[in-house]
Design a protein that fits this description.
The chain is about 60% helix and about 0% strand. It has a two-stranded antiparallel ribbon. β1 and β2 form a beta hairpin.
Length: about 190
């Protein structure tokens, strides 16, 4: 025998641990404290959910703006490529360096020329508010080309007559209404 009585917890009337009485009002105080903790936890979770919703909304807004910027920069590059092709075809030198896409650097260029290119890139104006509208206007009036239609018209009058406008929104509205009153396509 190891000195431990195996029957001790099993004897009736003897409890292994003595229960202490909490005293008057102690149970109500503990219950009130639990309610306060529960309310604080619920308030914390509600604030977390509000914050989470705001973060999600901000994330979506940022992604949308990023996509719009990417689309706009893509449109600027396309305009620059078209401008270069049409100017070269007509033998025109660009008014501004940013009318044409940046040239890819060649491996045998000296470092001085690289620094000049870096300075030129820094001097470029805002793509959305300056480059795109100016390239659009230049292509429309110099080459009778609509960036948004993707069509080179025969002359300016043809462009004015057949092109819905000089903005993407004008073309989007025109595209949305193309078949609105048309029932011929159902035949």
């Amino acid at each position: 025998s190891s000195g431990i009585n195996a029957e001790w917890p099993l004897r009736p009337g003897i409890e292994p641990f003595k229960k202490k009485s909490a005293g008057l009002g102690q149970a109500a105080a503990k219950e009130e404290e639990c309610r306060k903790r529960l309310k604080m936890e619920q308030a914390r979770l509600a604030a977390y959910k509000r914050n989470e919703a705001q973060l999600l909304q901000q994330f979506r807004k940022n992604k949308s703006q990023e996509a719009e910027m990417k689309h706009m920069l893509s449109t600027v590059r396309k305009c620059q490529n078209v401008c270069r092709q049409m100017d070269e075809k007509c033998g025109i030198v660009p008014r501004e360096i940013w009318y044409w896409p940046p040239q890819k650097p060649q491996e045998n260029l000296e470092s001085d020329e690289d620094e000049d290119e870096d300075e030129q890139e820094e001097e470029q104006p805002d793509p959305e508010n300056v480059i795109l509208p100016e390239l659009d206007a230049y292509l429309r009036y110099q080459h009778s080309y609509c960036v948004w239609c993707g069509v080179k018209y025969m002359h300016r009058e043809d462009l004015i007559t057949h092109c819905p406008g000089d903005t993407q929104q004008a073309h989007d509205q025109d595209d949305a209404g193309d078949f609105a009153g048309d029932t011929d396509f159902a035949d």
